[in-house]
Structure to design on (269 residues):
């Protein structure tokens, strides 16, 4: 399995809407450089660093930088509207990416899976012709079983699940259930560790991010259940903003370095 990082490995370094900006926000070239420094082979560029805002020259520069650094790129967006997915398919071709990851709903429009299915059927022949895989990420809007059934109905080698190990907690689905249900359809894995704590009053719990290998996620067990040896394993993080933005940026960079080493210790290359 191939270890990689994502734009969601560095959410504070890139910048989060509604929060103070980092001193020097990460650009795409910074993310690629960081991947090289961490000696990972895969970079997933997701919706918090949108690629459709770049012009063709900038995309070509990113492709050339990735090739020079020996990096494979995966791209990410939100939504299943055919126009948007086909736009990202073209971006994937420019960047020589083999995967486009998306979430079914996007801000302002929440689709049922029955509504999403015909939209996906419109674009899947184009993905198949290009030999680029479409990965549907699980999150709290849909149950894992419903997502697995959707992939089975679509019946294409060019659509599968981008399995996130924490997102489905919001639907009261624990990682063990998520992995058992979605592993057979997984084309990309997000390792995101977490802890659950009682609030100080003892009347309730909080879910928060943790450095990979230091939380409640059984990462070795997750990796053993994955269907392919060549799967990309992307480190994502929910680092806290406890004090200053500078501290949050430093913490997520520390977590990233240690998290990548942990993935290597678990057998990822």
């Amino acid at each position: 399995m191939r270890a990689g990082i994502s734009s969601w490995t560095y959410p504070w370094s890139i910048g989060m809407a509604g929060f103070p900006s980092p001193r020097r926000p990460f650009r795409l070239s910074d993310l690629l450089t960081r991947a090289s420094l961490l000696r990972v082979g895969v970079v997933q560029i997701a919706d918090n660093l949108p690629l459709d805002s770049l012009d063709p020259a900038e995309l070509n520069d990113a492709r050339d930088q990735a090739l020079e650094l020996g990096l494979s790129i995966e791209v990410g967006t939100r939504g299943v509207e055919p126009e948007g997915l086909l736009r990202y398919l073209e971006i994937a071709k420019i960047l020589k990416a083999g995967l486009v990851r998306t979430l079914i709903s996007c801000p302002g429009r929440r689709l049922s899976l029955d509504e999403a299915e015909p939209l996906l059927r419109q674009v899947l022949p184009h993905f198949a012709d290009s030999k680029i895989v479409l990965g549907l990420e699980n999150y709290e809007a849909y149950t894992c079983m419903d997502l697995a059934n959707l992939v089975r109905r679509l019946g294409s080698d060019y659509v599968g699940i981008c399995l996130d190990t924490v997102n489905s907690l919001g639907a009261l689905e624990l990682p063990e259930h998520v992995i058992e249900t979605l592993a057979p359809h997984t084309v990309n894995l997000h390792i995101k560790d977490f802890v659950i704590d009682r609030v100080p009053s003892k009347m309730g719990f909080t879910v928060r991010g943790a450095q990979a290998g230091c939380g409640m996620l059984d990462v070795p067990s997750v990796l053993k259940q994955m269907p392919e040896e060549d799967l990309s394993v992307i480190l994502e993080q929910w680092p806290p903003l406890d004090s200053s933005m500078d501290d949050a940026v430093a913490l997520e960079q520390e977590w990233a370095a240690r998290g990548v080493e942990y993935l290597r210790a678990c057998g990822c290359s």
Summary: The chain has one domain: 2-265. The CA atoms of residues 5 and 35 lie 7 Å apart. The chain has a mean pLDDT of 96. Residues 245-265 form the longest helix (21 residues).
